[in-house]
Amino acid sequence: MLDGDRLLKLVDGLDRNGLLSGADAESGRIGHVLTGYIGTESFLRAVVVVVKKLKDLNSKCRFVCDPVLGDRGKFYVPNELVEIYRNEVLPLADVITPNQFEVEQLTGISIHNIKDAQSACDILHGLGVPLVLITSVVFGEGDDGKEENKLITPSNSIGMFASRDGAAVEQYLLYTPKFEGQFTGTSTITFL
Fold first, then answer.
1. Which domains does the chain carry?
2. Strands 74-75 and 157-164, how do they pair?
3. What pTM was estimated for this model as a whole?
4. Which of 7, 8, 12, 120 is buried most deeply by CB count within 10 Å?
C-alpha cells in the first residue's frame, strides 16, 4: 500500500532523476495533477507537499482535486481529513469536484436551493479555488420564500452546479438523468 512517506520517496526519486521538470511540457514537465479518494492523513499531507513542489517547478501546473469525503450523509474517510482539505488542499486546487455532501462538510452550509449552492461556492472561491463543480446535487424546494430559490431538481434527475470565479463569477446548473445503482471510484493520484 502506498502511504504518505512512500509517495514522498517516489516523488523525490522522480525529481532526482530529472523526471519532474524540463524546459517545457513536451520534455517532461508535469502539467496536471488529479487526485481522488485519499483515506489517510499521512497520504493527504504528502499530496500537499507534492502539489506545492510541482507548482514550484511549473507555475502552470493545474491541480484538479476530487475531495472524496463521503456521500449521502456518510463519511468514507476519517472526519479529520475535512480540516486538512479545507485549510491545506483546497487553497492549492485549480478545480474541485466535490459532491453535495462533501461541499456541505467543507463549507458548513446545508444545500437546499441555488442560493445555498452559491453561498457554498463563495466560501470555496474565498479559499482560492477558481472552478468548483458540485456533482450529484439535488435541490429541495427553496425555504426562503423567494421565487428564484424555489427550483426543485426534476424527478429522476441529478444536477451539477458549476461556479467559476474570475473577473465576474459565472454559474451554471446542468441536469442529467439518474442511473439506478451505486457507483464508487478508486484511490487516485495521477500526474500528467
1. 4-191 (3.40.1190.20)
2. unpaired
3. 0.85
4. 120
